[in-house]
Every structure is written in C-alpha cells, then in structure tokens.
Amino acid sequence: MFFAHLRKMKTEFQNPVKYFIETEKKSILINDFIGKTLKIEFTGEINCIKCGAKTNKSFSQGFCYNCFTTAPETEECVLQPEKCQAHLGIARDMEFAKEGCLKSHYVYLSKTSNIKVGVTRESQVPTRWIDQGAHQAIKLAKTPYRQLAGEIEVELKQHFADKTQWQKMLKNITEGEELLEAKLRAIELLPEHLKKYIIKDDNIWTIVFPHQKNPSKIVSLKLDNNPKIEGILTGIKGQYLILDNEKVFNVRSHSGYNVQFEAIENRNPVLF
Q: What is the pLDDT of residue 176?
C-alpha cells in the first residue's frame, strides 16, 4: 500500500514501456501490478501541482484556478503551438519559454487510433508518443522554436487528425496508411516556405505497451464520481490504467488528486 499525490506517470522507453507513479519517498513500478487486483481510493483532497494549494477542482490536469490563469505551463501555446509568441519576446515567463518554447521542436506523424500530426519538443521524444498511446511514430520536420512547428501542424491538420480517438487507441484499433506513405503525402501538402524544415530521418519508432488484453468496451472512471476503484490491472497504455472489467483510469487527468494505492496478489489468477 502507498499514497501518492498524482502526476502524469513517468515512463522509460523499453520493450515494453515501463511506467512509474511517484510518491514522496520513491518511484513505484506499476508494471509489477499487472495481473494483480488494484485498489485506488481517493482521499477527498486535491492539491495544485504548481503551488500546492488545496483546490476543490483541478484545472488543466492539476492546477488551481489561479495557477491555471497565470502559470507558463498553461499558456495558450501549450495546446495551440502556432499562437506561441516567445520568439517575439512575449510570454508569461520568458525564462520558462527559453527552455520550453525557444528550443528545437519536431513535427511528427504517429499511429494511435489513426494517423495523427503533432508537435513536441526535441527533449520529449519519445515520451510524447508514449503518453498519447502511439504504437508507431516518425519525425517529419524540425524547427528552431515552437511557433514554427505549430505553423506546420496547422497546415497539415487540414489533412490529418490532430487529436487521438482515445477509445480506439485503447482498443488497439488503427486506421490509415503506413507512416512512410503518410510522411511523403504530408511533404507534398506543405507550402514551399515550410518545406525547408523537413528532415530526412525516416526511422519509424515502435512502442510496445505492457498489457495482457485489449478492452472491447470502455468505461472511463472518474474519482469525483467513483472515489473507490477496484479491478485486476490488465494493462497500461498512454496514461491509462486498464482494468479487467472494461474500465479504464486516466492517471494524468487526475493530476493533483491524493490517492491510496493497494495491489493484491490474486489467489486464483484470471487467464486472459
């Protein structure tokens, strides 16, 4: 049994991916709980992941309202990179922007539920793909700062999805052409002034997630409505814990929640 102030699960890119939940004292390898009955109990307390203040509601995955409206981590360009103004010297926190926005970014194509276009900092490869549940990804372009990557994404999301259909992702349903074909098509679709950022790296990253069974139907659990969650952990994908009763728990969306975890060895293991 252990307590945790939930954050996005940390990961290690291995085969399969390793997942960790952080406590005050140590990192807990959640892969070790697969096949065991997992109990998650909400204590009723939520603390902002930025300032630590108690809050009745979590905004933007873990922030109190004040931090949501002022913190650089929740600035508009986090979700809309094309609106970033850091390269113009405009940001909530320029020191933060120097490390987050004014660094090299990749535009990529990934296979989650479909072919998806996205943007990530160079330092977040392959973490970004793991977090979204992609089982394959390829780099398309490299830019010196965030806004330019967002500009390329805006051009391409007219032709490719820019959001993951999370239910299909968890069911392991994929649609669309192969990534190399998609990359060639994307290059042709870009206007000439953006093609100079295309890179020749055609390596396809393959990501294997730890699981015993893909769910056929999905019910997403929220601690606000279900303060006690229990089920056999059958897998982990993206930031989701997958339970045997076709239910899933999104750890990242509960950032800031204080919970108690307990993993129980099953006397009569369930075969999948």
A: 81
According to the model, what pLDDT value does residue 268 have?
Answer: 53
- In terms of DSSP H, where are the helices of 157-210? 166-171, 179-189, 192-195
pLDDT tens across 156-185, in order? Answer: 999 999 998 999 999 888 888 899 999 999
Alpha-carbon span 240 to 169, nearest angstrom: 11
Q: Which runs of E-coded beta strand occur in 23-112?
A: 27-29, 37-46, 105-111
Return the pLDDT at 267. Answer: 59
Closest among 108, 135, 117, 146 to 17, alpha carbons compared: 135
Report the alpha-carbon distance of residue 26 to residue 91 in Å, rounded. Answer: 34
Q: Within 62-206, where are the H helices?
A: 65-70, 94-100, 127-132, 146-156, 166-171, 179-189, 192-195
- Dihedral class, residue 172 (left if φ above 0, else alpha if ψ from -120 to 50, else beta): left
Q: Within 10 A of 254 (CB to CB), how many other CB atoms are there?
A: 24
Query: Which residues of the chain are modeled with pLDDT < 50?
Result: 269-272
Question: How far is residue 245 CA from its own chain's centroid?
Answer: 23
Q: Report how far residue 154's alpha carbon sits from residue 182's, in angstroms, rounded to the nearest whole number.
A: 16
Helix extents (H) in the chain: 65-70, 94-100, 127-132, 146-156, 166-171, 179-189, 192-195
Question: Is this prediction's pTM over 0.90?
Answer: yes
Q: Tokens representing 10? A: 């940390």
Q: Which tokens in the block code for residue 105?
A: 């970014």
pLDDT for the residue numbered 167: 92
Q: What are residue 236's phi and psi, to 5 degrees?
A: -140, 130
> Contact at 8 Å (CB) between 5 and 256?
yes
